[in-house]
Design a protein that fits this description.
Strand order of the largest sheet: 24-23-22-35-34-33-32-31
Domain SMB: 20-59
CATH class of the largest domain: Alpha Beta
Structural class: alpha+beta
Protein name: Sushi domain-containing protein 2
Distance between the termini: 60 Å
Oligomer: single chain
Keywords: Disulfide bond, Membrane, Signal, Transmembrane, Transmembrane helix
InterPro entries: AMOP_dom (IPR005533), Epithelial_Barrier/Signaling (IPR051495), Somatomedin_B-like_dom_sf (IPR036024), Somatomedin_B_dom (IPR001212), VWF_type-D (IPR001846)
Strand content: 25-35%
CATH topology of the largest domain: Protein Transport Mog1p, Chain A
Main location: membrane
Number of strands: 35
Length: 618
């Protein structure tokens, strides 16, 4: 009864605080009038006093899709007796804990999606009134120092093939697992059900432990034995290091995971006796399955013809982390290539992907000429919304449908003809490079149709408007004493779902800030973020690229304190845009027109250009 009275008291106090507009408890992202719980309140200095207590930030804010990351809830305190429950994506609960400084911790769960997911935290399981978000990251994009490492991963994935044997070794940073002793567990991934049906499901499952109660020394080696008890049917998996205080296979505990990989080392004895014959049998079975599945090749985009085009088309293609010329990747699955890119967007109906690879001369490598050629993918490696189900599960679906079969047909046996029959390179015959327009300097404009002019208006102006996308720029005086000279200080982009991405010049003019729906994003941990309808890539504080489902891309660069913005639009936008960057119809004469429809006669006349620019002032 006493506990019940205490709960009633807390609820009454909460209601009173809400009525007075003084508490963010249950009101994150809302302006309460007397004070605010919106992300902008920090810069406006209008936050309610308990804003950070209930609208929480975490450190770290991101972790691998596999889960197991221990993160702390910042700026909030908990009672030592609190039982913390962390709810991710409104559906998955994990147990947290309170440390000896009264800070709350959560453990991230294994997810089947990437990007930002909702986070709600409760200290007794009754009310989840602390609200934040968590960034789930594709395992291939996670910094290696936050993963367990397969020493000589090639040996792990060729184990049992001719002349490959002996012991295997793995290492990890001991700080990733807060325990004196650990278990080394094998987990496997499978997809079941009829492809492209409602019952098509993907699942991870604990298989067995390689070792138990091992000292948390940061390394483990063993000589693998062929799997028994039917475990050999699991051909894709990951090794997990977790505290031995938990029973085998306990879900969503602090852990370090290896990359997902082909489980050659644990396959049945039959594989070790004749790996090529075993792989051929699998390859032929895959060949028959592919014959029955829908043809996805007709809905993927063509590759750029050259490496230069591929690297320039940032709205539609992005570097493949497994074959990156700038990072010296080995390009294991594409021998002979020096760089690959992936189509950013998955195909609409089948969630398929496109991969384009290039040799040292910048020429596209085709599978007709080389085993290392460009290959399309039935399942996009990075997944695609709404995620969670095949073939849209990031990484894992791609392994099942496009990578394991490459091992069967090409790497564990010499039967690539079967693989390339279903994964032929797409050439560049129908590839159309994007059109580009630029704003730079004080500020100078170059339209999509090549018109150059200078416009020194001050305010917010429409650069591009289209039914799928709107881009606005803000210009401000270069300095307080300058009368005529202005410069671009912010670019805001809004798509059809009203998701706003803004890139703006920081007050010190030494870096760029990125905001999503008015909330500042941090790229301290991850350079790549995906949202439901856009992607943001920020490899350095002076370099931001925003990509949209339409294939549009916006590059913002900071050079010597000045923003330069390049807008890239695919052919589909031609003739259907308006704004200070023209109308992209191959006719430079009508890029800017007066309100009466008459085109600008003299782009070097600042007064005439200013009058035109006023038409696009917001």
């Amino acid at each position: 009864m006493e506990r019940f009275k205490a709960v009633i008291f807390v609820l009454l106090v909460s209601c009173i605080c809400r009525t007075l507009g003084q508490s963010c408890q249950g009101f994150c992202d809302i302006d309460l009038g007397a004070c605010s719980c919106e992300p902008t309140c920090t810069s406006l200095k209008t936050c309610c006093t308990d804003y950070r207590e209930y609208c929480v930030n975490t450190f770290p804010y991101s972790g691998t899709i596999f889960g197991g990351t221990d993160f702390v809830v910042l700026d909030a305190t908990f009672n030592q007796s609190s039982q913390i429950i962390c709810r991710f994506d409104d559906s998955i609960d994990t147990l947290g804990y309170v440390d000896d400084t009264s800070r709350g911790h959560c453990i991230s769960p294994l997810l089947y999606e990437t990007g930002w997911v909702s986070l709600h935290i409760s200290d007794h399981g009754m009310r989840f009134d602390r609200v934040g978000s968590w960034l789930s990251v594709h395992s291939g994009k996670v910094d290696p120092k936050f993963k367990a490492n397969l020493v000589n991963s090639t040996k792990w994935q060729y184990y049992g093939t001719p002349n490959v044997g002996g012991s295997l070794e793995m290492t990890w940073n001991t700080s990733l697992v807060r325990a004196d002793r650990v278990n080394i567990e094998l987990w496997g991934y499978k997809e079941t059900g009829e492809p492209y049906s409602d019952n098509w499901q993907g699942r991870w499952e604990y298989l067995y432990s390689l070792a138990k109660h091992q000292p948390n020394s940061g390394s483990f080696s063993f000589v693998p034995k062929p799997a028994g008890n039917g475990f050999s049917s699991w051909e894709l998996g990951s090794v997990r290091v977790s505290p031995s205080t938990y029973p085998d296979g306990t879900w969503n505990v602090q852990a370090a995971w290896t990359e997902d990989h082909a489980l050659a080392w644990h396959l049945e004895e039959k594989f070790r006796q004749d790996s090529a014959a075993w792989a051929l049998e699998k390859c032929l079975a895959w060949d028959l399955l592919e014959e029955e599945l829908p043809n996805f090749l007709n809905e993927i985009i063509d590759c750029p013809c050259t490496l230069a085009q591929a690297r320039a088309d940032t709205g539609r293609f992005h570097t493949d982390y497994g074959c990156d010329i700038e990072k010296g990747s080995v390009c294991t699955h594409h021998p002979g290539s020096v760089h690959c890119v992936r189509a950013i967007q998955a195909s609409p109906s089948y969630g398929a992907g496109q991969q384009c690879c290039y040799d040292k001369n910048g020429t596209q490598v085709l599978t007709a000429d080389s085993i290392g050629g460009s290959t399309p993918d039935r399942a996009h490696d990075w997944g695609s919304p709404p995620f969670k189900k095949p073939p849209r599960i990031p990484g894992f679906s791609h392994w099942v449908h496009d990578v394991l079969s490459f091992y069967y047909c090409c790497l564990w046996s010499d039967n690539c003809k079967y693989y390339f029959k279903h994964r032929p390179s797409t050439d560049c015959r129908e590839y159309e490079p994007p059109s580009s327009a630029v704003v730079f300097g004080d500020p100078h404009f170059i339209t999509f149709d090549g018109v150059s002019y200078t416009f020194n208006g001050k305010g917010e102006y429409t650069l591009v408007t289209h039914r799928l996308l709107r881009i606005q720029g803000r210009t401000e005086p270069v300095n307080e004493t300058s009368i005529n000279a202005t410069m671009l200080t912010s670019v805001a982009m809004e798509n059809i779902r009203f998701n706003i991405i803004e890139v703006r010049l920081a007050s010190a003019h030494n870096h760029l800030e990125v905001l999503q729906n008015h909330k500042t994003l941090s790229f301290a941990e991850q350079s790549w973020m995906n949202f439901d309808d856009s992607f943001v890539f920020c490899p350095t504080p002076t370099n931001v690229t925003v990509m949209f489902p339409s294939g549009a891309g916006v590059e913002v660069r900071l050079r010597e304190g000045t923003m330069t913005t390049t807008v890239l639009l695919p052919e589909e936008f031609k003739g259907s845009i308006r704004g200070l960057l023209g109308n992209m119809n191959d006719d430079p004469k009508d890029d800017l027109v007066h309100s009466n429809g008459q085109p600008v006669q003299n782009y070097s006349n600042p007064e005439e250009v200013f009058r035109i620019g006023a038409n696009f002032c917001k």
